[in-house]
Design goal:
Helix content: over 70%
GO biological process, one term: regulation of DNA-templated transcription
Structural class: mainly alpha
Distance between the termini: 95 Å
Low-confidence stretches: none
Protein name: Ribbon-helix-helix protein, CopG family
Order of helices and strands: HH
Strand content: under 5%
Mean pLDDT: 81
Largest sheet: none
Number of strands: 0
Length: about 90
């Protein structure tokens, strides 16, 4: 059985652009469209990786922020205790 390439239906304006690029570059329309599709696929993978990094960074920042809040609360509690002992003394 012969392998078939899926057909893509392009917007007429986009098709005009691909035709113009084909005339200027001398490459076939299919080569230009294939290159664009590969670029978009790579961009999606890159965007996905960047989203994963951003989510990981946000999670890390939230954990650090929580620890800073806990340290701040502990410091305030210790200062309150010190002030209370000074007032009693």
């Amino acid at each position: 059985m012969a392998k078939t390439t899926p057909r893509i239906q392009l917007d007429p304006d986009l098709l005009d652009l691909v035709d113009a690029m084909s005339r200027v570059s001398g490459e076939s329309r299919s080569v230009i469209v294939d290159r664009a599709v590969r670029h978009l696929a790579f961009s999606d993978e890159s965007n996905s990786a960047l989203r994963d990094i951003a989510a990981s960074s946000a999670k890390g920042l939230a954990e650090i922020s929580g620890k800073i809040d806990a340290i701040g609360s502990t410091i305030v509690l210790l200062l309150d205790q010190q002030l209370a002992s000074i007032d009693e003394g």
